[in-house]
Specification:
It is found in: Membrane. It comes from Nephila pilipes. By secondary structure, this protein is of the alpha+beta class. The protein is 20% helix and 29% strand. The strands form 2 sheets. It has a 7-stranded antiparallel sheet, with helices on both faces. Strands 1-2 form a two-stranded antiparallel ribbon. Helix 1 packs across helix 2. It is globular. The two termini are 26 Å apart.
């Protein structure tokens, strides 16, 4: 694990920034970005913009995606990422994911966000830090809410239309794990994701 940071400029992994900018179900309503509160907080911290192109709009992609996010990465100037397909959050699965394509790239990326134990179980073991459970316990005991992020690159031979046919399960195999500690003192993360009275958090 890297040290905890308060400023996104201190995050060395561009994949973490891309996950925060893309892995959500936000949309524009009356010109404002709206959606789940945690999604909004994470997206707003990136400083990126979200737009929903209409049929006939000029976009830097093979097809017009439902949503495009635009922002800056440390290794490049402003970039656009198409949110090609979304698997929305389901409380029973404790996760959501999106399939994306960055402007100028041939391949697609998948980003996942969810409960740490679930994300860890879907990740390649060699990408998960050995002390992950100790770190989770530490932040949980401090009153932080803990969210895990993961990503994977899809093979270059998959086409845009084939992405539309992907199932949630097909897109999930062997993620690369990235742990993102999220400060939300209103909720506590419990290992079994349940409060003392047994109800889900």
């Amino acid at each position: 694990f890297e040290s905890a940071v308060l400023n996104l400029d201190q995050i060395s992994s561009e994949d973490v920034i891309k996950a925060m900018a893309t892995c959500h179900s936000l949309s524009r309503i009356d010109g404002e970005v709206r959606g789940y509160n945690l999604d909004q907080k994470m997206f707003n911290l990136t400083g990126w913009d979200l737009r929903e192109p209409a049929l006939g709009n000029d976009v830097p992609f093979e097809y017009i995606p439902p949503r495009i996010v635009t922002g800056n990465l440390s290794s490049s100037n402003e970039v656009s990422i198409a949110l090609v397909k979304m698997f929305p959050f389901e409380s029973s699965l404790k996760r959501m994911s999106v399939v994306t394509q960055m402007e100028g790239r041939d391949h697609f990326d998948v980003f996942l966000k969810g409960a740490p134990e679930l994300v860890i179980s879907l990740s390649r073991k060699d990408t998960v830090p050995d002390d992950v459970m100790e770190v989770l316990e530490y932040y949980s005991s401090q009153g932080f809410r803990v969210i895990a992020l993961a990503f994977k690159h899809l093979t270059n031979d998959i086409a845009w239309k084939e992405v539309q046919k992907l199932t949630r399960r097909q897109s999930f195999n062997s993620y690369n794990s990235q742990q993102k500690m999220w400060n939300d003192r209103r909720k506590r993360f419990c290992r079994n994701n349940k409060s003392k009275n047994g109800s889900e958090l």
